[in-house]
Specification:
Blueprint (H helix, E strand, L loop, with lengths): L1 E3 L5 E4 L6 E5 L6 E6 L5 E5 L3 E5 L6 E6 L3 E2 L2 E2 L2 E2 L5 E2 L7
Antiparallel strand pairs: 1-2, 2-3, 4-5, 5-6, 6-7, 8-9, 10-11
């Protein structure tokens, strides 16, 4: 189980007993979106305007995509069927 929070961290929790397994740190603002890819990578979107890709096994950050994590004040993150990143653009209203 994964959670993102306003303290900029991503936490990995045991689905069996609820204990904290790992904390992923690197974002500099609240984590607003999380997705797990079919290959096990974790993708996070933050109000720091970055999207980060994390290794699901080690918890290390493998990629930082700057300037695309926020759309109109909120994080936008979507994973396609083929584990491609999509960043939809929303209009006003």
């Amino acid at each position: 189980v994964y959670s993102g929070s306003s303290d900029n961290a991503i936490r990995v929790w045991s689905g069996h007993d609820g204990r904290l397994l790992r904390t992923l740190e690197g974002h500099t603002d609240a984590v607003m979106g999380l997705a797990v890819c079919s290959g096990g990578a974790i993708v996070s979107g933050s109000l720091d305007t970055t999207v980060r890709v994390w290794c699901g096994t080690t918890g290390s950050c493998t990629s930082v995509l700057p300037g695309i994590g926020v759309c109109f004040g909120r994080a936008v993150l979507a994973i396609g069927r083929e584990t491609k990143l999509y960043f939809p653009v929303e209009g006003d209203g």
